[in-house]
Amino acid sequence: MMTQRSSMDWMLKDLAAGVPQTRHVIVLSADGLCVAQYGAETDTADRLAAACAGLQSLAGAVAAELPRSEGRMRLVVIEMDGGFFYLMAAGDGSYLAVLADEGVDAGLMGAQMRNLVTRMGDHLSSPPRHDGQPA
Q1: I need a surface site. Which of 26, 77, 87, 110 has the fewest CB within 10 A?
Q2: In the chain, helix, strand, coil percent, each to 5?
Q3: Which InterPro entries match (predicted)?
Q4: Chain segment 27-81, per-residue pLDDT in tens
Q5: Which domains does the chain possess?
Q6: Cα(26)–Cα(9) distance, rounded to whole angstroms?
């Protein structure tokens, strides 16, 4: 369970070090709060987390149109000028997001993200909050 913003930052370092061209790695709650980061200033991580919340919601709405999807988003990849953005469901109510430069190995990135989520799944869960406080 995620409890302190910086408590998982060190775990994200392995992902960034293992995939050349990785720029920022963050873990966010479903409502867009950054709970861990590596390679990003706090303001950048907060902006990315907020944007990711909207993106995962949009992806879930699109997924709901597919049979048997139950409206759950697993992975979103966006290719843009200068790089790639990855957003992966990481645990109950949490997501792993990566911003990488143009030369990144997409297959390696996906594999490393899946490995991190598998290894850290229980720690990457974020319970819903009530009145701004964890449940």
Answers
A1: 77
A2: 40, 30, 30
A3: Mycobact_SerProt_Inhib_Rv3364c, Roadblock/LAMTOR2_dom
A4: 999 899 998 999 999 999 999 999 999 998 899 889 888 888 777 788 999 999 9
A5: 5-127 (3.30.450.30)
A6: 8
